[in-house]
User: Which sequence fits this backbone?
């Protein structure tokens, strides 16, 4: 078996083209990472020059950024499926709010009376019920779209108002707080992180997975005698992938618990050390691990299962999909149900992070979620989109917001910038697609 | 001769007395056609005569209001494309019915993906199978890893044909398979039709080009305004006769 580059024309092309052809890297992905790097460095330098302190590229800020991205990122992965099939879901922010308040009331007012105050069952039952509620709402909206033929824009526009109003009615607009202490960990914070050792375990699992993926892909190609990537390209991809994982672990582990929390911890555990000498790493926050888990699961769903294949097919040509024997309506219901489930999961993360549930939670999230998916390369024309793109898109949106807060822009300016970036990103995408043809 | 054989054998497929209406308009009005193994039956008529509608009742895209469909002499229910496929009825649509954003292998296996023992799509095996069948149908085909939107009309047609042929069709429906093709690719389709005939498939061919009909078909059923004008043996009539049926709705004396 000889190693050949995938494209025979690659040999005559320039070094950049040859590199891209050999590694089979997506130029879109590289573009997004480049944009992200530009945003990060830009804000850091701007802060350093204008305010005398570059606050962006610090462990603390990047750790916070990762937590803030989780909620939008989780929903964006579902929005990719919705948009790929040429639909839209404007109701996700309201579903998030409704599920969150529902879970809040469950764990504070109802479950303690049933399973007993302080029972470890409370948080898990509340979370499961909340996600189930989101799934049911999503499935219902999907049924209206698929079997009753109402445009998704209208169904979910109505849903946006209905579920927001329902969220208010559940607790007459009251804020439910504090939430169950275990539930709260799902939102992050010093206690809601896996710590230094835990992060290394996550990192090692990640590295093993990357190596296994590369080896397995190569074996598959060899089995069917498809062109192989050159060995150097495989090694390069492996090193970059593993390097990114190790870098992320080092980063989150270099952000220590704040001194106040350490004192509390030392006191609670009757330790006899001086709190200022203790360095306890945050490590990965739990919501970030949830986002990573969701991202992997959704990528798997979209690329390795028939369901994912059907989602793309329906987006590319709904009539052809129907003629190929795909039950387009039922798949549509499943897509919206999945979106609802993810909105419910986001409700868990968002309310846990605030340690409270309000009926206003998730307001305007639908727009950020759609923006994240679209910035991440999901085509509103249908048929095209990736999960990792949507997560990166969410990270771009959140980076802009965080960055502007750090350097002290007004809320008004922030809105203008975010809106402008969305339009710019879509325009760049259109130009990219046109030239890529 | 063939005529004697036909009366003795059971038709591969028989559509009896099919009617279907859309909003008060009878698109197909009590039409009966049949098809024997190893036979090509042309369906002819003007645009809007009801050929495509009739055939969509067989491929499962529409459900007939009245009438019945028999496969091997047994009545079957075809309510959707899956039912049709279960009867080994494959269709090559005029629009090709390809998902433009997916590659050739994904389109070929759409709705019938090959899966691993764990139930996951087996892309590598599907691509390998696609390479095999494309090599047989269209040896020049090399674009396996690009969306089919990047393919030429002929290449797209080969994908659509490969999809119908791969799954051991017994009854093949071809809706104007050469409409968008150049002469060379049209020849490829003609050769394929001959080859499939030899293998014993029955083919319904919707075709406008009267020369192709005379060349490829054994019989021709002509429709006009949703009604069947008549079915004739192609070797017993002239192309003028068939044109007369299409344009005037007139049955020549020898119609069977």
Assistant:
């Amino acid at each position: 078996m000889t190693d050949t580059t995938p494209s025979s024309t690659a040999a005559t092309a320039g070094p950049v083209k040859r590199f891209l052809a050999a590694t089979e890297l997506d130029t879109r992905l590289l573009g997004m990472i480049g944009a992200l790097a530009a945003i990060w460095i830009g804000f850091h330098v701007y802060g350093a020059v204008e305010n005398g302190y570059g606050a962006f590229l610090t462990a603390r800020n990047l750790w916070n950024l990762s937590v803030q991205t989780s909620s939008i990122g989780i929903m964006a992965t579902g929005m990719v499926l919705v948009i790929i099939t040429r639909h839209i879901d404007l109701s996700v922010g309201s579903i998030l709010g409704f599920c969150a308040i529902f879970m809040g009331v469950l764990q504070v007012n109802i479950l303690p009376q049933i399973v007993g105050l302080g029972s470890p069952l409370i948080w898990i039952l509340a979370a499961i019920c909340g996600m189930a509620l989101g799934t049911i709402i999503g499935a219902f909206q999907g049924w209206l779209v698929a079997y009753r033929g109402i445009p998704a824009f209208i169904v979910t526009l109505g849903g946006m108002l209905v579920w927001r109003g329902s969220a208010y009615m559940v607790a007459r607009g009251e804020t439910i707080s504090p939430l169950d202490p275990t539930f709260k960990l799902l939102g992050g914070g010093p206690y809601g992180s896996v710590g230094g050792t835990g992060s290394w375990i996550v990192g090692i699992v990640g590295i093993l997975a990357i190596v296994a993926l590369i080896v397995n892909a190569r074996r598959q190609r060899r089995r069917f005698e498809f062109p192989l990537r050159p060995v150097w390209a495989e090694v390069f991809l492996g090193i970059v992938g593993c390097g990114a994982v190790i870098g992320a672990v080092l980063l989150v582990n270099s952000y220590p618990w704040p001194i106040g929390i350490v004192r509390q911890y030392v006191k609670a555990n009757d330790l006899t050390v001086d709190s200022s000498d203790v360095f306890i790493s945050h490590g990965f926050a739990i919501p970030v691990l949830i986002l990573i888990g969701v991202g992997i699961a959704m990528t798997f769903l979209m690329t390795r299962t028939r369901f994912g294949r059907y989602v793309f097919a329906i987006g590319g040509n709904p009539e052809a999909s129907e003629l190929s024997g795909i039950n387009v309506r039922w798949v549509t219901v499943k897509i919206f149900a999945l979106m609802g489930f993810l909105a419910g999961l986001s409700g868990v993360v968002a309310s846990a992070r605030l340690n409270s549930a309000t009926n206003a939670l998730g307001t305007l999230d639908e727009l950020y979620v759609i923006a994240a998916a679209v910035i991440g390369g999901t085509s509103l024309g249908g048929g095209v989109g990736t999960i990792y793109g949507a997560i990166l898109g969410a990270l771009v949106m959140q980076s802009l917001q965080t960055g502007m807060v750090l350097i002290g822009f007004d809320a008004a300016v922030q809105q203008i910038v975010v809106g402008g970036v969305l339009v710019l990103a879509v325009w760049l995408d259109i130009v990219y697609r046109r030239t890529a043809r | 001769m063939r005529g004697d054989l036909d009366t003795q054998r059971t038709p591969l497929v028989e559509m009896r007395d099919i009617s279907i209406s859309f909003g008060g308009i009878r698109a197909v009005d009590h039409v009966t056609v049949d098809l024997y193994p190893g036979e090509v039956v042309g369906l002819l008529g003007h645009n809007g005569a009801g050929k495509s509608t009739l055939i969509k009742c067989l491929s499962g895209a529409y459900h007939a209001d009245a009438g019945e469909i028999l496969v091997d002499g047994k009545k079957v229910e075809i309510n959707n494309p899956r039912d049709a496929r279960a009867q080994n009825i494959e269709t090559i649509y005029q629009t090709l019915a390809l998902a433009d954003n997916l590659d050739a292998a994904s389109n070929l296996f759409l709705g019938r993906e090959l899966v691993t023992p764990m139930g996951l799509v087996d892309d590598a095996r599907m691509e390998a199978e696609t390479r095999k069948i494309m090599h047989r149908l269209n040896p020049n085909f090399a674009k396996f890893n690009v969306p089919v939107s990047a393919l030429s009309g002929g290449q797209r047609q080969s994908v659509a044909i490969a999809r119908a042929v791969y799954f051991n069709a017994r009854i093949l429906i071809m809706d104007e398979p050469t409409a968008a093709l150049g002469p060379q690719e049209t020849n490829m389709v003609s050769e394929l039709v001959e080859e499939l005939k030899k293998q014993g498939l029955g083919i319904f061919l919707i075709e406008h080009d009267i020369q192709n009909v005379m060349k490829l078909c054994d019989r021709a059923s002509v429709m006009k305004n949703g009604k069947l004008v008549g079915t004739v043996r192609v070797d017993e009539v002239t192309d003028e006769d068939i044109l007369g049926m299409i344009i005037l709705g007139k049955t020549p004396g020898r119609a069977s």
